[in-house]
Amino acid sequence: MGISIRQLTRRYGAFAALDDVSLDIADGEFVALLGPSGSGKTTLLRILAGLDEPDRGEVWREGQDLLALPVQHRGVGLVFQHYALFPHMTVADNVAFGLRVRPRARRPSRREIDARVEALLRRVQLEDLGRRYPAQLSGGQRQRVALARALAVEPSLLLLDEPFGALDAQVRGTLRHWLRELQRSLGLTTVLVTHDQEEALELADRVVVMNHGHVEQIGSPAEIYREPATPFVHGFIGRANRVRGHVERDRLHLGGHAFAGELPAEFAGREVDAWLRPEHLALAARGSGGWSGRIEYLDQAGPLTRARLSMHGDGLSLDAEWSAADVAARSLAVGDVVSVHARQITLFESVGPQRRYRFVPTVSGQGAADAHPIDFSAWLHRKA
């Protein structure tokens, strides 16, 4: 069922956990609420779950006022970070708990409960562990039990509050893929709260980036990463370099280097904040006269090499990411001086309305002809 959230506000004294938040969630959509601690994402989730109430605002689902419904009638399944399993109950009894505590008029028969539990354990790949207790399971298995328990009551809305936060990195990666496939197969409207940007970008159909109780941007994972709407989103999502600069006519001046390219007239003479993704600093062809810097460190991480460059001009340092094959082919080492070409720079005005502009510098000479671009599209669309 689709959900319409309108102008939700929640204050705790002078602190605004939510400040006029509006959001539409489509039926069957997987939405991630992403932001740092204190951004309001957990407060929003708690209001949807019925664990908190807003000071102002509305939440509608299929024409029904969700906030007016008691918790037990909202059709919500909730999964917490720390499992919240009953240690004295078996796995099967934990999954069945929500069904067995229903009022007699709404409670399925014992046979129906047993059949549903068996089907759910099979779906979460724990069919042989029903008689075990939580202490006998791994962290990943416990989280699957918690998810099965939430699904047992056949919710119309699944809420996930940092569900993988207590697990190690390898288990998190495995469970993320498994959860996405499960959510797709069920077609269940799902809201995930997380501060892990990789988790949000990999799992969600749309990402809601929150900060200080406000929504900064809503979009697909690719839109959020490639077209950040505000300086906060650019700095929070992925890795980025922030450089203060200014525009003079058709030149962008950054770190002692002038970039030519098409710039809007309203940016002329303005101070700007320039944001550069590390993967957008490509190794330039030798003798191309690009932006020059000295390598301070190199760190190979699989097929990528991460570098820190001390740029010539005013002591500016920038992070870059290159193909490990390119670095090896050039025999690059710490202390070498290299030229780089900025493929793309996102500009925000330093003062005023903070208008955004995607600037593509003109490549002089041969530019980055012998540097292979790093393609992040596969990472952004692994869930597709």
Present the secondary structure layout.
Blueprint: E1 3-12, E2 15-25, E3 30-34, H1 41-49, E4 56-61, E5 64-65, E6 76-79, H2 91-100, H3 110-123, H4 139-152, E7 157-161, H5 169-186, E8 189-194, H6 197-203, E9 206-211, E10 214-219, H7 221-226, H8 231-236, E11 241-248, E12 251-254, E13 257-260, E14 271-276, E15 281-283, E16 291-301, E17 304-311, E18 317-323, H9 324-330, E19 337-342, E20 345-349, E21 356-359, H10 377-380
Parallel strand pairs: 3-8, 3-9, 6-7, 7-8
Antiparallel strand pairs: 1-2, 1-4, 4-5, 9-10, 11-12, 11-14, 12-13, 14-20, 15-19, 16-17, 16-19, 17-18, 20-21
Helix pairs in contact: 2-3, 2-4, 3-4
Through-space gap between termini: 22 Å
Question: What's the helical proportion of residues?
Answer: 10-25%
Strand content: 25-35%
Whole-number average pLDDT? Answer: 88
- Largest sheet: spatial strand order: 6-7-8-3-9-10
User: Largest beta sheet, briefly?
Assistant: 6 strands, mixed
Low-confidence stretches: 365-384
Radius of gyration: 25 Å
**How many H/I helices?**
10
Please, what is the oligomeric state? single chain
Number of strands: 21
Estimated structural class: alpha+beta
Which geometry do the CA atoms define?
elongated
